[in-house]
Amino acid sequence: MESLERWLRIGVPAGWDDVAVRTVKAAVVAFAALMIKERMDSAWDAPACLVDAAWVAGGTFVLNAILALVSPRGRQAAKA
Predict the structure, then answer these.
(1) Nearest 5°: CA angle at 62, between 20 and 38?
(2) Closest CA relative to residue 8, chosen from 77, 55, 74, 52
(3) Core-most of 9, 15, 16, 68, by most CB within 10 Å?
(4) CB count, 10 Å around CB of 64?
(5) What is the pLDDT of residues 4-16, one digit of tens each?
(6) C-alpha–C-alpha distance, residues 26 and 80, integer Å
(7) Single pTM value for the model
(8) What is the spatial distance between Cα 43 and Cα 39, in angstroms, rounded to a whole number?
(9) Rounded to an integer, what is the distance from CA 75 to the centroid of its chain?
């Protein structure tokens, strides 16, 4: 059980700067993947991909913010 807890703690952001970096990374990766998918399906639809990437980034931000607030590791980093 300790091994599982250790693996779950890896995903907890170390602070708000970590939450921001993870959010930006998710947005960039989502946008790139969606653009490739759109190109394979039909034509470029950058505005729709930007909106979808923003939704992915928003969900990523919410999840990481909750993890940062709930986890002792995240709370300790926020105080420092």
Answers:
(1) 80
(2) 74
(3) 68
(4) 22
(5) 777 767 788 888 9
(6) 26
(7) 0.73
(8) 5
(9) 18
User: What are φ and ψ of residue 28, in 5° steps?
Assistant: -65, -45
How much is the pLDDT for 9?
Answer: 73
pLDDT at 51 over 80: yes
**Two structure tokens written together for 79:** 């105080």
- Amino acid type, 28: V
d(CA 62, CA 23) in angstroms, rounded, equals 9
Please spell the DSSP secondary structure of 33-77, one letter per residue: HHHHHHHHHSS--HHHHHHHHHHHHHHHHHHHHHHHHHSHHHHHH
